[in-house]
Amino acid sequence: MHRHRRWLQIIGALLALGIYAGSWHVVGIDLRKLVEPQAARRAQEIFTAFLTPEILVPERGAQRVEAPMRVPCESGNTPEAVGVGEGPRLFLPPCASPGARIRIRGEGFRPGSELVLRWVFAPSPQLPLGGELLAGRTRTDAAGRFELDVEVRPLLAQEGGARLQAEARWEGRWQVSPALTRTMELTLQTIFLALMATTLATVVAAPLSFLAARNITARGPAGTAVYYITRTTFNVVRSIEPLVVAAIFATWVGFGPFAGVLALTVATVVNLGKLFSEVIETIDPGPVEAITATGANSLQVIRYAVIPQITLPFLAFIIYHWDINIRISTVVGFVGGGGIGYQLKLWIDQTDYHKAGTAVWAIIAVVSAMDYASARLREAIR
Amino acid sequence: MPLIVDRLTKIYPDGTRALHEVSFTVDDGEFVAIIGLSGAGKSTLLRCINRLIEPTSGRVIWNGIDITAASPRELRRIRRQIGMIFQQFNLVKRATVLTNVLTGRLGYMNPWLSLLGYFPPSEVQRAMQALERVGLADLADKRADELSGGQQQRVGIARALMQEPRLLLADEPVASLDPVLAHSILRYIEELNRKDGVTVLCSLHFLDLVHRYATRVIGLKDGIKVFDGRPDEIDDRRFKEIYGQEAERIGG
Amino acid sequence: MAAERRPPQGFAIIPGLAYYAMGLRTLAGIWLGVSLTLIGLALWRGHLWLWISVGLWWIGTGYDVRRRFKGRRPRLWPAALVALIAVYGVGWEVTEIQPLAPFERFDKMRPYLIALTQPDLLTYPTERQIYRIPVEVPCTHPPAPRETRGEARIWLSADCAQAGDPLTLQGEGLPAGLSLELWWVNPIGERQRILQEGRPLSLQADASGRFRTAFLAPRAVPLGFEPPPGQSQTHFLELHAVRVIGGPRPSEALLEVAEKMGETVAIALLATTFAVWIAAPLSFLAARNLMGGSLPARAIYYAMRGFFNIVRSVEPLIFGIVFVVWVGLGSFAGMLALMVHSIAALGKLFSEVIEHIDPGPVEALTATGANRLQVVRYAVVPQVVPEFVSFAVYRWDINVRMSTIIGFVGGGGIGFRLSEWIRLSAYRQVATAVIGIALVVMALDYVSAQVRRRIV
């Protein structure tokens, strides 16, 4: 007997070992992948960015003026500078000789901003995509003026001239980043997505749950059949993740939050239906008996003996599922179901990790808050 | 090598004064019963002696060592010589009886080896002897929660035996048991006291048990020592001092 | 009601203040919360009707306050109704609910429902006999019927056609009951199934080996290989006589689903196992009863708690996209994602188990002179292990569900193929995968429930 057990234990251990070895192989665990230089750098980049989410960004402004300049001049010598542009004005000669140093002036730019001068080339046989060449950098003075000596590079002669562009750039006041605004809007959408789904699901699940309650439905062959069919449906649909349903629904009703609402509704109906029916099955039969004894009909019995008993537990489960639905609705967007998930995935795919960080922190805040609120609410109504 | 308790005071963070300047000396081999109402400070007194509860002021000196001033390391060396048994037995319910008894030896063992769950055969043998002494050797492989209350308390005694204690603190050891079982448990403690010469401090609820087993009685009321003497010295007046004016004396 | 204080009448102008003055603190708090929510919603969406509902909420609660002042029964439902309408109205708008869309676009869903009744499970090895009938496209001469002779005689109503032309095909001398498929092959070898009402046309030879069918010539002229005006190119109509040889075999989709479900379960198993071994020691650091006392211990306790709570609130799928960027596509990324989330979820549950242990044994072992680690090993660990195992099994169950979708973001398992099949509208394969998932998840659900019932 004892020896028999020992053998069973050895076989069990070997089996477990085999299963783990197989799993290890199938999953392709390779811890080096975590630390190899490139991967580690990506990870570091992501996590650093997540820790510094984009919340405030400086207001950026730029002014641009550009004007063409021929090189070399037909006449051979460089003429006087002429002004171009309204508002900010750029003074430059219309043509110049290669190798000459010419003085470029500007006025009417934003005072104290960074100023970049560059040559902009049109596409040509030598430069099929066009091009840019830095001509010089300076800052505008307190009156918004600048002066800079620029060399007319040989490349300009080769191309027959270029457009000279003056760009003044500055960073202004810090303001709420567009990513944060977008995140907040989508977070609210996420909350409402969960709210709508939970509400719709409650409306559907509450009556259905009576069909899945043994003590209410399972009377006679027809009732028993209804009971088992409802039960089984709940169990089967419960095993399909809402995201799978959402992916299918997105092709049905189109991408967007409505697909998410429907998918979450389906998932919540079956979960709540099961929980509700269990609540109904465990009610105290005493009041039912008492009210039936007064000569009340079945609807009256349900209204006065059943419903008062189930209201609070139902409410607790509904709140709990709103909480769960908020979690799911943060990712339902990955498959086209609306909410913040879609934008988060987009930002990560675009390697906009700071913006993705904003979304992740918003998710953490909302989910934690709901988690806490739901726990407190459920405690309060118990 | 007596146990000296010197002006021991304990005030809990919520302001409850559980002990107030309690002083007494216990000689080797005494069987001291501590009596008093619930909340009189009996448990606090016992736990202040091995510093399961940190006293607010006062000293406890045993074997010439100041327990109240001991470093954590010294404290553990002292504790391993002080056995303790509890009202709720305090066994690990999901562990076997044998393991529960062996844990009494942890203070003597190599800390790292013991973390692996290894006990040398000599210790296992010692544990079996302890179990034999309390008449439970055949239940060694049972889970602790499969045992009755009286059996569990005997496991508790066996665990204390493993420590080869010089002093035994017993906190209401029989309060959760039937009267018949209570005597059986107290007889084991008495045997420890008589045969092995272990000093016993035991809080008790029933006066008849005090008369039957104790050589000395300390009475506590609201954290203050109100009586210290032989059990037969407790007359009606003393009884009312300890238990209050409304109390009626039952038994004993 | 008698306990309510009666503040000055003017307080009714700000109902929340009146509630507060009446001693109804909770109601005052709720009033403030609802008011701020409604104003926030109105600011966000900017609709006039939302501002109106803010006003109505104010009036409704003011009405309730007046009733209370006069000692009548409170009546809050009109105000509550206004607030609910406002909130759900915004919800309706924000989540873009289109109640008719599911019906209007039901044609997109129908194939899934049909496919669920006929998932791609089995294939029958077949032998095909192919009859090729050349067809000129487009017609450069008046069309004439064309007959092909072999073992069977097959007539096509026209020897030339243009996309959309009706054609009739009939034949005789085929083995009775043989199933037939029609394919169209263009000059560069692209073949397509002939469709009828959007579905592949399939027919059977009757008992005497005859068949007859009508269909439309498909659009098949290859892009960039159009014939010059006035000329035609030769396409072929293929009649495949399909004979089943041998018994049913599992289909490719079924084999793939089976393999990927194995991978899915393996991902969940490893993620859970690693998470348990990491979360178990960490959870001791997050247990209030063990980390009391000294300041550093408290600090560690709060740090671990915070870590668990933050990580727990991030769905595994989000970790999935991060790990896919980190270690690349595949099951390993999915496993890591599930593991990290599980560490936090289990860590929190484990630490709560530790906080609810019986303190008696801890006291008893401390009294024997055991050190802190020994106390944990002998008084705490034996008490918590069964609960830990139970939670771990439960977590495995959850992780199997999660790992069915972790592939949606590239984390391996069935989800990856499933998302592809959904994108390609491979309805029958989707059905196979969904049924596979349902079976495995329900089976593991049952096993996990049984195991947990035994343990605790």
Could you describe the 3D structure shown?
The complex is a heterotrimer of chains A (382), B (252) and C (456). Chain A has 382 residues and is α+β, with helices and mostly antiparallel strands. Chain A folds into 2 domains: 61-176, Sandwich (Immunoglobulin-like), CATH 2.60.40; 178-381, Orthogonal Bundle (MetI-like fold), CATH 1.10.3720.10. Helix content of chain A is 59%, strand content 18%. Chain A has 13 helices and 8 strands. In chain A, a hairpin with a 4-residue loop joins strand 2 and strand 3. The radius of gyration of chain A is 35 Å and the shape is elongated. The two termini of chain A are 51 Å apart. The relative contact order of chain A is 0.10. By secondary structure, chain B is an alpha/beta fold. Chain B has 2 domains: 1-81 and 165-252, Rossmann fold (3-Layer(aba) Sandwich), CATH 3.40.50; 94-159, no CATH class. In chain B, the strands form 2 sheets. Chain B has a 6-stranded mixed sheet with strand order 6-7-8-3-9-10, with helices on both faces. In chain B, strands 2-1-4-5 form a 4-stranded antiparallel sheet, covered by helices on one side. In chain B, helix 5 (121-133) packs across helix 6 and helix 6 packs parallel to helix 7. The longest helix of chain B has 17 residues, at 179-195. The two termini of chain B are 32 Å apart. Chain C is α+β, with helices and mostly antiparallel strands and 456 residues long. Chain C folds into 3 domains: 9-94, no CATH class; 126-245, Immunoglobulin-like; 252-455, Orthogonal Bundle (MetI-like fold), CATH 1.10.3720. Chain C is 55% helix and 14% strand. In chain C, strands 2, 6, 7, 10 and 12 form a 5-stranded antiparallel sheet that branches. In chain C, helix 1 packs antiparallel against helix 2 (25-45), helix 8 (295-312) packs across helix 10 and helix 10 packs across helix 12. The model of chain C has no long low-confidence stretch (mean pLDDT 89). Chains in contact: A-C, B-C. The B-C interface holds B 50, 52, 75-84, 86, 88-95, 99, 103-109, 111, 114-115, 117, 156, 159-160, 162-163, 169 and C 358, 360-361, 363-371, 373-374, 377-379, 382-383, 385-386. Chain A: GO terms for molecular function: ABC-type phosphonate transporter activity. Chain A: Its main location: membrane. Chain A: It is found in: Cell membrane. Chain A: Pfam families: BPD_transp_1 (PF00528). Chain A: It comes from Candidatus Thermoflexus japonica. Chain B: This is Phosphate-import ATP-binding protein PhnC.
